Amino acid sequence: MNLLRIGNFSGFYGDRADALREMLTGGELDVLTGDYLAELTMLILGRDRLKDPGAGYARTFLRQLEDCLGLARERSVKIVTNAGGLNPAGLADAVRQLAGRLGVPVRVAHVEGDDLTARHPGSLAAHAYLGGFGIAECLRGGADVVITGRVTDAALVTGPAAAHFGWRPGEYDRLAGAVVAGHVLECGTQATGGNYAFFGDGDVRRPGFPLAEIHEDGSCVVTKHPGTGGFVDVGTVTAQLLYETAGARYAGPDVTARLDTVRLTQDGPDRVRVEGVRGEAPPPTLKVGLNRLGGFRNEVVFVLTGLDIEAKAALVREQMADALAKSPPAETRWELARTDHADAGTEETASALLRLVVRDPDQAVVGRALSGAAIELALASYPGFHVVAPPGRGAPYGVFEDVFVDHGAVDHVAVLHDGRRVPVAPPRDTAPLTDPTRPPLPDPLPAGPTRRAPLGRVAGARSGDKGGDANVGVWARSEDAWRWLAHELTVDRFRQLIPESRELPVTRHVLPNLRALNFVVTGILGAGVAAQHRFDPQAKALGEWLRSRHLDLPEALL
User: Fold this and answer.
1) Other CB atoms within 10 A of residue 278 CB
2) Which pLDDT score is estimated for 1?
């Protein structure tokens, strides 16, 4: 068989519960993948494991499977998921128990070896990002359900593809094609119009989940089941390709995929062909995500209504400063959001929000000391004093960081459905990760009349987080727009438009095949999403903020 149909039914822990059934009943499939893990999810599962050593996996997956395990068996659809989180063996046992209770004969295997927590004292969870060949061994051994812990998101696709087509390590172009397919599928409906800059191009009220028709050479067609919502076009696939990536080399444990070689073409309604992907040897080290508790955090949001907003903000800041001086938190941060409008027709639209965030290793410093100081001002501060919600006792926050280990430092093992343990060898060849030669830019657009307008009138964007860094991928929808964008949106211009980035390292990567620029802003998210360093802690809307900024746009593009 020269075609493998792989679908996705989950892009994060908490995604649409009925997606598994929808994908199983909506059309033909060979494999279904579910991605549940993110940096924040690993912290959540780590805290679960502190309370219960038998926990540490995504329990919602079991509820989804209870409804659909028999259906998947009936339709001969394999299920591959990283819902095992910190405890893949525990979830595999739970699936076996579920299958026995339901009377559905399925073979369950799992992958282990990613857990390095014991080697990193003080961490709540430390897990290496494994590749897809452990999954492939489980499937070659006859598994119907494969449970993993921390593998790369794309490994959920490269593993089944390697098993189906017989790929072996070193077949870099084929593996790189599957990595690109996996990256497009991993976030579910983000490939079918969800969170899309030009969402008005289709009906995205309930996007269907995506699937990829993968060929033996590693090329694929990204599509969705007939009759489901959303849409698939070159733009939606481009947006997802740029999500949480950086430069032209997209490194993984099995292969480094060259994103600058990807070619996308519309292959019919809701069908995008992905081809031309080249691959290279993976880097000599594996990424390990370290999660630890960073201390305690609390916040209070004061509502300032009507006149004299700045003076009211100054008053409450001075009052709180006096109170907090008795036991100063390690970090104090204020932010005034001017959401108020003059002569507003509702009280809500007449109000601004003043946000105070404090952090400290000691919960008492950010707990009752803060809440008491804030509430004591209820009758003694600015006119109209109230808060969005009473501050609590302070909650723990997490810190994420990347470290790297040699491939040989990890015992990557496929545990087959019959209990046999198959070691997965590290890659034989590796290559240090370097930036490729900068590609030439297109010819500039000829000079002509301009009009002040938002960047988003001519460009799309998608942004996301990688630890403490954020990336913003920006792409043009026409060749002329690309000719303008490539020369206009420099690092200096980006810094002008995004003031938060002005004192931070910003790197621009050029991807001509995608008519795209990818900006990486180092450190903008502090210690990662769990630290909630900024208003938008995962930088999900950073790209939309950029698109809203005004520039002098060529009238020919408008």
Assistant:
1) 17
2) 56
